[in-house]
Amino acid sequence: MYLIDGNNLLFAARACMPGPPVGRQQLCEVLGRWARRTGVDLTIVFDGPHPRPGLEQQMLAAKIGVVFSVSRSADEVIEEMIEGAPVPSQIRVITSDRAIQSVARGRRCVCIESADFARELGASPRDEDATAVEPPPPPEKPGPLRPEETEEWLRRFDLDPGDLCG
Fold it and tell me: Are strands 65-68 and 110-112 parallel, antiparallel or unpaired?
């Protein structure tokens, strides 16, 4: 079982993963693909309230556990989940937060730094052919996508062109 400090990993992913900046929904999609490929159970905990219903449904479509801390901090929720786990030694906690790591290690969880995990996600097969070259800045008002851009987005989101409508 992987237990992830969502905002902490999101920050690390923005710094480590190639391509456009990663948001909550995209992070959940990447984690969902990774979890299916590796066969692990995964729960990500984000600070704050539930997002608008449409966005929350998109995040939940990744088929991973998504928890919002609502009126508490994500740190409190994660620590409570660790403390309440029947076999905490089977939990991998993804965070760079020292307080959470201390609680996790005290319960014999394995801790993985968010940046290390983000690099692992960024090196996953979906990104093997990503280049290290910085893309040019976007035009002031973006025009339609070029065919190679469309192919790149289809590849990044693991979509088949036949799945698209219109």
Answer: unpaired
The top-scoring range by mean pLDDT among 46-60, 69-83, 125-139 is: 69-83
Under the banding of pLDDT at 50, 70 and 90, the label for residue 135 is very low
CATH topology of domain 2-131: Rossmann fold (3.40.50)
Could you tell me whether strands 2-5 and 65-68 are parallel, antiparallel, or unpaired per DSSP bridges? Answer: unpaired
Whole-prediction pTM:
0.69
Tokens of 102: 């201390």
| Domains of the chain, residue spans | 2-131
Predicted pLDDT at 143 = 64
Q: What's the chain look like in SS3?
A: CEEEEHHHHHHHHHHHCCCCCCCHHHHHHHHHHHHHHHCCCEEEEECCCCCCHHHHHHHHCCCCEEEECCCCCHHHHHHHHHHHCCCHHHCEEECCCHHHHHHHHHCCCEEECHHHHHHHHHCCHHHCCCCCCCCCCCCCCCCCCCHHHHHHHHHHCCCCHHHCCC
